[in-house]
Amino acid sequence: METNATEEYRFDLGFYVFPEADYMVAFCPSLDISTSGKDFNDAVKNFYERFQLYIETCMEMGTLWKDLMAHGWKVTETRITPPSDVNLLRTKEVNRILRSPKYEKMSASVRIPAM
Q1: What is the pTM of this model?
Q2: What is the dihedral of CA 52, 53, 56, 62, to 10 degrees?
Q3: Residue 17: is it exposed, middle or buried by C-beta count within 10 angstroms (0-12/13-18/19+)?
Q4: What are the pLDDT digits (tens) for 63-95?
Q5: Where are the alpha helices (DSSP H) in the chain?
């Protein structure tokens, strides 16, 4: 997760998509954000929009780095690293998802401005 010439971080963000009631839910345990949609593609599309809104809001408020660290991310001037899957697997929410027979783990390539 190194910065590049345009001064941004690039990394893969993991999230889960799973059915709940009549909807599909997209949940990112490393940021504790979620959204839903009427089907799989709708949930994924809504997740990307939700993630973008999260980044924009935190950047406007000046709280992005503090919020990432509060969620277990390691943040330096040259690198950000999400919490390990081992730590995330210990949470109640992720354990509930993994017990569902119809979840899919997704990975999104994302970029955010550097510190």
Answers
A1: 0.81
A2: -120
A3: buried
A4: 999 999 999 899 887 778 888 766 666 777 777
A5: 40-61, 64-70, 85-88, 92-99
